[in-house]
Amino acid sequence: MSEHKFGFRTRALHAGGTPDATTGARAVPIYQSTSFIFDDAKDAANLFALQKYGNIYSRIGNPTVAALEERIASLEGGIGAVATASGMAAEYITFSALAGSGDHIVASSQLYGGTVTLLDVTLRRMGIETTFVESDDPEEFRKAIRENTKAVYTEVISNPGGEVADLEGLSEVAHTAGVPLVVDATLATPYLLRPIEHGADIVIHSVTKFLGGHGTTLGGVVVEAGTFDWGNGRFPTMTEPVKSYGGIRWWDNFGEYGFLTKLRSEQLRDIGPSLNPQAAFTLLQGVETLPQRMDAHIANARIVAEWLASDPRISYVTWAGLDDHPHFERAQKYFPLGPGSVFAFGARPSGAFDSDEARLVAARATGEKLIESLQLASHLANVGDARTLVLHPATTTHQQLSPEQLDAAGVPADLIRISVGLEDPEDIIWDLDQALEAATGESR
Ligand SMILES: *Cc1c(COP(=O)(O)O)cnc(C)c1O
């Protein structure tokens, strides 16, 4: 049995979750305890000095949270994971473990809004500089790397444009420079893509989204492949003695587990954005049905994207599974099951316009009317719920921008982002159809 390799669906249900030894509980129990009893004084001393592995205090580790960490690490094919209170917390502890004042990060410019402000404002204020690369060409990332660069960062599939990252190209660029490739794989989930198989070293998720899957609970996770050489000279904080742990060295003492141990024993200890056991339990329920839900999300996304693409009222659809998407070929390679269920589309404003300005104003109004007319899809700022979600950036997240600025930001005034849910696809289409009719005055 130990030789047998369990499949993805089996691991989604079982990894990290052995029945409770004392009670026989089959589901992972919620260990609602801040702290854990020491055997004796020596045991306590060993745990604190990291001479022994075990539970101390739930800011650093908790058995329910550990089950979630082990399960996601198993699904990603990593050696371990550290869970956090949110996806942003997972990003923050990763950047703060990798880089300090005077250091530099190379990142794609196509990132989640919160990630852009974390890198561009908060980390910059702390002395960590980021170069945002606008092209998806790995050579442009190579040119941006400096002596003090500590990571190459990208999302595996961008939102809302559906751009698929060239992971193998970026991995080669990062590894030639001696830095890890760090990816945000939130929209992919390990069911659709395992970035470690394509050269990523660190994989981050907002577990809040498809992994949790029901729009109820925030959480994040950092998974490590365990193959990066932290002793290459670029990462002194990994190889120099750690004062607060009696001079141990993360890389020398913990080897391939060094970075994850640093995340847990230093970042969670000192900063404290830990996942709580109730949240870990709720998120575990979602992970158990991840494969079945993602199959259904993808099937619905395909039906909705194809329906939209064939509608004369629609000007564009950004789902990379459509053969006219610029990243269709790359999506076939990295996402053989399909490139997720979050994408965007635009509705053509009806009528004739005597200027671009007039057309842009009309496009914004059409997007606004469309979103207001939807009856089933929920208008909110989230993705990866079981329900269909929509957002019109021009009147919400990007409302302060002029139509021209919106175009420059790659967010056309008419752009509607959709996260296709698990409803009957005929109902999602019925809803889009009636809202398009209300917004454009035209029927299909
Ligand atoms: C939502 C999201 C995040 C942030 O995650 P939270 O759990 O909301 O903190 C990061 N990256 C991507 C791609 C996301 O969709």
Ordered list of secondary-structure elements with their pairings:
Layout: H1 8-14, H2 41-48, H3 63-76, E1 80-84, H4 87-98, E2 104-108, H5 113-125, E3 129-133, H6 138-144, E4 149-155, H7 167-177, E5 181-184, H8 189-192, E6 202-206, E7 220-224, H9 236-239, H10 250-254, H11 258-271, H12 277-288, H13 290-309, E8 314-317, H14 328-334, E9 342-347, H15 356-373, E10 378-379, E11 389-391, H16 403-408, E12 415-419, H17 425-440
Parallel strand pairs: 2-3, 2-4, 4-5, 5-6, 10-11
Antiparallel strand pairs: 1-7, 6-7, 8-9, 9-12, 11-12
The protein binds pyridoxal-5'-phosphate.
GO molecular function: cysteine synthase activity; O-acetylhomoserine aminocarboxypropyltransferase activity; pyridoxal phosphate binding
Family: Belongs to the trans-sulfuration enzymes family.
Protein name: O-acetylhomoserine aminocarboxypropyltransferase/cysteine synthase
Structure characteristics:
alpha/beta; binds pyridoxal-5'-phosphate; five-stranded mixed β-sheet
Structure overview:
This is O-acetylhomoserine aminocarboxypropyltransferase/cysteine synthase. GO terms for molecular function: cysteine synthase activity; O-acetylhomoserine aminocarboxypropyltransferase activity; pyridoxal phosphate binding. Pfam families: Cys_Met_Meta_PP. One of its GO terms (cellular component) is cytoplasm. Its cofactor is pyridoxal 5'-phosphate. It is globular, with a radius of gyration of 23 Å. It has 17 helices and twelve strands. Strand 4, helix 7 and strand 5 form a beta-alpha-beta unit. The N and C termini lie far apart (57 Å). The protein has a seven-stranded mixed sheet with strand order 1-7-6-5-4-2-3, with helices on both faces. It has a five-stranded mixed sheet with strand order 8-9-12-11-10. The chain has helices at 8-14, 41-48, 63-76, 87-98, 113-125, 138-144, 167-177, 189-192, 236-239, 250-254, 258-271, 277-288, 290-309, 328-334, 356-373, 403-408, 425-440, and strands at 80-84, 104-108, 129-133, 149-155, 181-184, 202-206, 220-224, 314-317, 342-347, 378-379, 389-391, 415-419. With 444 residues, it is α/β, with parallel strands linked by helices. The model has no long low-confidence stretch (mean pLDDT 94). It binds pyridoxal-5'-phosphate.
